[in-house]
Amino acid sequence: MLRRWGILLGMLTLLAGLAVATTGSASAGTMGFRPGGPVHLVGSAAAVPNARGGIRHQAESTNWSGYAATTGTYSSVSASWTEPTGTCSGSAKYSSFWVGLDGYNSSSVEQTGSEVDCSGSRARYYAWYEMYPNPSVSYSNTVRPGDHFNASVTYTGSNHFSLFIQDSTQGWSHTTTGTLAGAPRSSAEVIVEAPCCTASGGILPLANFGTVHITGSMANGAALGNAGGVTQIIMVDSAGRDKDTVSSLTSGENFTATWLRSN
Question: Residue 17: how many CA atoms within 13 Å on its side-chain side?
Answer without folding.
Answer: 12
